[in-house]
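User: Last request for today: this protein with magnesium ion, please.
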Amino acid sequence: MNERILIIDDEETLCYFLKESLDEKGYQAVTAHTAEEGLEVVTRQQIDLVLLDLKLPDGNGLDVLYEIRKADSDLPVIVLTGHAAVESAVQAMKLGAYDYLEKPINLAELSITAAKALESKAMRHEIQRLRSQQQDRDHQLIVGDNKQMRDIMRLIERVAPSKATVLIQGESGTGKEVVALALHRMSPRAKKGFVPINCAAIPDTLMETELFGYEAGAFTDARRQKLGLIEMADGGTLFLDEISTLKLELQAKLLRIFETGSVRRLGDIKDRHVDLRVVAATNQDLRQATKDRTFREDLYYRLSVVVIDIPPLRDRIEDVDKFAAAFIAEFNRTRATNIKGISEDALRLMRQYEWPGNVREVRNVIERAMILCDGDVINVGELPAEIVRTEPSMAFAANVVPIPPVSSGVDMKAMVAGIEKRMIEEALAQTQGNKSRAARLLGVSRDVLNYSIQKYGLQMDN
Ligand SMILES: Nc1ncnc2c1ncn2[C@@H]1O[C@H](COP(=O)(O)OP(=O)(O)OP(=O)(O)O)[C@@H](O)[C@H]1O
Ligand SMILES: [Mg+2]
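Assistant: Here's the final one, the structure of the complex with magnesium ion:
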C-alpha cells in the first residue's frame, strides 16, 4: 500500500508541484490549503506523513503542528518554512516536528527527508509491536493461576507502573526473580536495564566496588574507571537478591543512596544522581533479622513499602500440573523435542510430593524426565526416586505392613492376591457393600474393583 502524505500549504501551485513529484516517487499525496482543512484530513484519513507550511491564511502553522501532535503523537510532520524563518523552525522542532525544509523546496532533499521520516515511523511501530508482544509474553511468563498467584499477579500489575520499592519474600525456588522481572518488564522502565545483584554471591571485599564503581586511581589497582551496578540501573530496576546476606555496613550505605537518590564512586569527589526502582528479594525472615539485629530496621521499612509473599509450591500444589505442562513446552521448544505430556500416574505422584525446592525443582525434574523419556509421554519410571517414594501407600507398605516370610517356595502373587482380597472385603464391609465408595476408598476405579470381585468370587449381598 502506498504511504499517504498530506501537504498543507496555501500556495496552490507549490502544492500541485510537490504532489506531482511525490506521486511520481510512488507515494500518494493529498493536499489541503488551510489549517482547518488540514486538521480535518488528519483526523478523518489515514495519513503517514504531513508536510506543513508554517504560514497559513487561517492560523499559525505551529498551532496546527501542536494540534496534529495532540491528535496523533506518532504522525511525523516536516515543516516548510520561508527563507530566514529559522526561529519558527527551531520552535517547530521543539514542538516535535520531525525536520524542517526551507523554501524554495529542493525536491531531492524533500524526497530524502520524507523517506527518512516514514522509515522512522515504521521503525517506531515495529518496536512498539515487538514490545507489546514481549509484554504479552511476560504476562505468560508467570505460570500458575491458583487464588494466591492470581492475587500476586494483580498486585504486580498495580505496583509495576509506580516507583514503589517492592520486597519479595518466599522460599528458594518459588519464583522471586520471575516476579521481580515481571515487575520490571511491566513498568515504564522496561526499556532500561534490569540489574540483578546477588548479595550472597559477591564477596564482601568486592561488594563496594561492584555496587558503587570507582574512578581511575581510587586505589592501586584502579587503572581505569569502573561503572558500578547501581549506576548501571539508572532509569531501570535494581534487583537486590538475597538482601538478608548484606553486611550491616553496606546496608547503611545503601540506605543513604536510596534516601539521597545519589551515589558516589569510590575515589570520586562528587555524588551522581541515580533514578532507581528498587526490588529486593529474600528467603529469610527479614523482620526476624531486624529483631536479631543482623538487618537494619530503617532499611527494612524502606524496602518493604510493598511486600509480595510467594507461597511455597506445596501450598499451591494444584498448579503443579500447569508447571509440568509449561516446562515440557519450554524444553520442547528449546531442545526441539516432541514430548506430548505426562502420564496421570506420574502427575499423581508429583501432586503428593512436598517439593522442598519448589518450582525450580519441578523444572529440574521435568528436564531430567524429558532426557530419560523414550516415548512421547513422561512416565513414573522417569521420575526421580524421592518422588516415587512419596507414594504414601508404598511408604506405608514398606514400613508398616509386615511382609510374609520370604523363603524358597513362596508364591508372591498368591500372597499379594490374598492381601488384595482381604482389603477389598474390608472396604466393602466398611461401605456396606457400596462399590463406588469402596472403590474410592481403595483408590481404584469401579471397573478394577468389579474385576477383582469377580476374580476372587466375592459374594455381594446386593
Ligand atoms: N510462576 C512461575 N512461572 C514460571 N516459571 C517459574 C515460576 N516460578 C518459578 N519459575 C521458574 O523456577 C525457577 C526458579 O525461579 P526463581 O529463580 O525466580 O526462584 P527464586 O525464588 O528467585 O529462588 P532463589 O531463592 O533460590 O533465588 C526458574 O527457572 C523460574 O523460571
Ligand atoms: Mg532468586
